[in-house]
Amino acid sequence: MKSWNKTGKILPAVATLVYLFMWAPVFILVLFSFSNNKFGIKWEGFTLKWYAELFNNVAVRNALKMSLTVAIITVVVATIAGTLTAYGLYKYKFRGKRALRTTILLPIVMPYVVTGAALLAFFTRIVHVPLGYPSILIAHISFSVPLAVFVVLGRMARIDWTLEEASADLGADRLTTWRKITVPLLLPAIIASAALIFPWSFDDFTITYFVAGVGSTTLPIYVFSQLRYGATPVINTIGTIFVTLPIIGLLLVSLLQKKEVT
Amino acid sequence: MKRFLTTQAYLPYVGPISLWIVLFVISPLGVILYFSFLKVGPVGQIVPTFTLENYLTLFKGAYGIILLRSLLFAFGTNMICLLIGYPLAYWIVRYGGKLKITLLFLVIMPSWTCYLIRLYALKTLAGYTGLINSTLLNLGLISSPLEMLYNPTAVIIGLVYSWLPFMVLPIYASLDGLDPSLLEAAVDLGATPLRRFFTVTLPLTKGGIFAGTILVFIPSLGEWLVPLLLGGAKVMMVGNLVEHHFIKLGNIPMGSSIAAALTAIVLLIMYLSIKVGGEEALERII
């Protein structure tokens, strides 16, 4: 029993240190975005002026617009594509199913530099996709579809499929069944995957950096271009947006899952 | 049910995605493999002459050292993440009680914020004029600021900071799915807690461990932003070489050979992880 008492003390200590390590830098970043210090590195009294500066900055506004446009289109396309794919994977047996399940994972398992570099070479030297919105969207959809597929697949294992059969037995055609039964049943998972894909796409830096080409600036790329000037309060404010956005997304997902359980 | 299951009925669902994967995932990888055996011309054009020179450059001299360093750093990061992540996941599952999900969320959430921003936050904190140095100076513990960045330790800390959540998540899922009756059986048969852990718990959660390994080792190996921001020019990794050749130099054949070698290593790691960790390693990735 002695070893248990020991682990009983070590484990909480490890956990506390990890939480501190993971959250302290982020917490300080958010805190300093409200600090008067013009280098954004220490506390000198509360201010909102950096936020005012942020929203008056045209470069930031344009970058934000591009990031939002990319993320919204990616969410819509990847969620629909992912839902259809999950349905096919769940409902049907076909040759190459296992291969499909594994290769779908490639864009999120591969190191980002490899995915980015391979797409860049492919777009500029083989198929001539213009760098900018087209290349960024193709890249983002590729690494977002897998998320939707597996979130929806998870839900599919837990729903009552007899409703779909009943609908068909009552004479509904395939489309009506989808509209009235399948989609409503899957809706929590569809919303959850959308809520996960949005920050996933909005946050991406490395792959976008490779395929963006000259002049396409998303918000993370804007931040990267500013880093050579060292720490600035404006980056702290952008960072705060990046921190709060996914937290809202994840909270939404957890709320949906709680609802699903009850 | 029958009417949905006609022979080609799956095609509208999985056809488009299969086409997309072949076009935008497999083909680009095939293309860099092809380019990696070609030469680069004076203005960055690709000359279709077969050569092995790119690979020879990669495996010897300065590039060889960078490749070795990357493997070492990725392995080290993976082990540190495992040594920290396993106890953390274990603590959450065993002692989390009602707060289990919240505690897990607190681990995962940072990984969903832009990692460029998180690295910037870490760098600012540990930087020359950062909060750690200014606090230590104010307390009188040091007389001049410490240089904590631009060394291998900073890079490894940055890698752990970036990828640790991806180790905790699959291990948590694995531990949480463990059948409690197996643990009770071990106790009934007289196993000590330590022995029970090593003979029952650990082997039964190896799927989670290897899924975590896929999710930590691979991105650490291909990392370029962490060494760029926290390591500087002295502590480069292969990811920096890929970026350097593709973006800065426009030498696509050389960059492709590095990316292709990286892909080969990644596929080998995935294959081994799934072989050792079982099918669960694959399923726990998402």
Spell out the blueprint of helices and strands:
The complex is a heterodimer of chains A (262) and B (286).
Chain A: H1 2-32, H2 49-56, H3 58-91, H4 97-109, H5 112-127, H6 133-156, H7 162-169, H8 174-203, H9 206-211, H10 219-226, H11 233-261
Helix pairs in contact in A: 1-11, 2-11, 3-6, 3-8, 3-10, 4-6, 6-8, 7-8, 8-11
Chain B: H1 11-35, E1 39-40, E2 46-47, H2 53-59, H3 61-95, H4 100-112, H5 115-126, H6 131-138, H7 152-176, H8 180-188, H9 193-204, H10 206-221, H11 225-231, H12 238-249, H13 252-277, H14 279-283
Antiparallel strand pairs in B: 1-2
Per CATH, which architecture of chain A? Orthogonal Bundle
Radius of gyration of chain A: 23 Å
Residue share in β-strands of chain A: under 5%
The description of the largest β-sheet of chain A is: none
Structural class of chain B: mainly alpha
Shape of chain B: globular
Helix fraction bin of chain B: over 70%
Distance between the termini of chain A: 39 Å
Corresponding CATH architecture of chain B: Orthogonal Bundle
Main CATH class of chain A: Mainly Alpha
Question: Helix amount of chain A, in percent?
Answer: over 70%
Beta-strand residue percentage of chain B:
under 5%
CATH homologous superfamily descriptor of chain A: MetI-like
Account of the protein in words:
The complex is a heterodimer of chains A (262) and B (286). Chain A is mostly helical and 262 residues long. Chain A has a single domain, classed as MetI-like (MetI-like fold, Orthogonal Bundle), CATH 1.10.3720.10. Chain A is 79% helix and 0% strand. Chain A is built from eleven helices and no strands. In chain A, helix 3 packs across helix 6. The longest helix of chain A has 34 residues. The radius of gyration of chain A is 23 Å and the shape is globular. Chain A starts with a helix and ends with a helix. The relative contact order of chain A is 0.14. The mean pLDDT of chain B is 89. Chain B starts with 10 loop residues before the first helix and ends with a helix. Chain B is mostly helical. In chain B, strand 1 and strand 2 form a beta hairpin. Chain B is globular. In chain B, helix 4 runs antiparallel to helix 7, helix 7 crosses helix 11 and helix 12 runs antiparallel to helix 13. The interface between A and B is large, with 92 and 89 residues.
